[in-house]
Amino acid sequence: MALILDYSNVRITYHHVDRIAPENIQPWERALTSEAGPIASLVIILLCFAIVLIRKHSVFAKALGMIAAIQYMGGLIYFIGAVFGAAPPTDFDSARFAQYLNISIFFPSLVEVLILVGTWILFIKLINRVERIQAVIGIIIGGTFGILIWLTLLGPLLLPATG
């Protein structure tokens, strides 16, 4: 995405992508770049749903669709924090998107929560009723271990902590 929008000196590290860009870059271009990950996740979710429509018993497509929806947890964290009076987080994709467009974090976070909840409800209903509990627990455990492995081992190994 950074190459498409002609960013220069883009540097990926473990914690972030440095957004060193030409001064003439438009706010909507920065916003679009900040949403590249969520857009990719949405495409994966839609592809998985299409696969499930064609092959109703594709456990892989159902599981991948549910895991891809985890990308949208930032919006859920925003609303949980708002309920308990915590300061809204600002280091997630939709928060940066809202900042670049100078809009409230509420609206992009609401869209994230709707995608997350809608995806999980849809794919859970598509899982065979007998296997539903086992499948959902497996997806949650697998996703949790995957995130932990990325945060503790693969992320720091593949992407250096500093530029």
Care to describe what's here?
- This protein is mostly helical and 163 residues long.
- It has one domain (30-158).
- 64% of the residues lie in helices and 2% in strands.
- It is built from seven helices and two strands; from the N terminus they run E-E-H-H-H-H-H-H-H.
- A two-stranded antiparallel sheet has the order 1-2.
- It is globular, with a radius of gyration of 18 Å.
- It starts with 10 loop residues before the first strand and ends in a 5-residue tail after the last helix.
- The relative contact order is 0.13.
- Residues 12-18 have low confidence and may be disordered.
Number of domains: 1
Instruction: Report the sheet with the most strands, covering strand number, pairing sense and barrel closure.
Output: 2 strands, antiparallel
The low-confidence runs, each spanning 5 or more residues with pLDDT under 50, are 12-18
Fraction in helix: 55-70%
Instruction: Tell me the fraction of residues in β-strands, as a range.
Output: under 5%
Number of strands: 2
Major beta sheet, strand line-up = 1-2
Q: How far from one another are the termini? A: 19 Å
Mean pLDDT: 78
Structural class: mainly alpha
Number of helices: 7
| Overall morphology | globular
The oligomeric state of the chains shown is: single chain
What sequence of helices (H) and strands (E) makes up the elements?
Answer: EEHHHHHHH
Radius of gyration: 18 Å
